[in-house]
Amino acid sequence: MRALLQRVSEASVSVDGTVIGQTGAGLLILICAMQGDTEGHADNLAAKISKLRIFQDENGKMNRSVLDIGGAALVVSQFTLAADTSRGNRPGFSAAAPPDEGNWLYEYFVTQLAAQGIAVQTGQFGADMKVALVNDGPVTIWMES
Question: For every one of its 145 residues, what pLDDT tens digit does the chain have, with 9 covering 90 and above?
């Protein structure tokens, strides 16, 4: 699985002009299931993200996790993280998991992240979504399982 994490002060996702998910301080996680990904990949990624120390402590050092700060996460599916730009000018997305499998792994990842103790809200798989965020730092981290 591929994930792009953004440390945020706030973030929201809308479909057809209606906010369907939002968070205050915490993480915006853009996630993509890749071909060959399994539950194990989602388990590992959720565990790693929950403990990743990218929030500031009292000394201004990135030494706290989203759990440590009592933060939440907004998780949005984004198959375009699978983009292959190695040939031509039009990206290919064949490395992404097929839609049914991708949706299942996305929902499984959300469940596993919540099981780590993080309050989670989501976007809508496959929808045309509008994502708004205030990136804190900015801190943006790319992860793969």
Answer: 999 999 999 999 999 999 999 999 999 999 999 999 999 999 999 999 999 999 999 999 999 999 999 999 999 999 999 999 999 999 999 999 999 999 999 999 999 999 999 999 999 999 999 999 999 999 999 999 8
Q: What is the number of other CB atoms lying within 10 angstroms of the CB of residue 116?
A: 18
Q: Residue 79 carries which DSSP code?
A: G
Alpha-carbon span 93 to 79, nearest angstrom = 7
Catalytic residue among 6, 23, 79, 121: 79
The hierarchical CATH code for the domain 2-140 is: 3.50.80.10
- pTM of the predicted protein model: 0.96
**79 counts as catalytic:** yes
User: Among this protein's residues, is 140 annotated catalytic?
Assistant: no
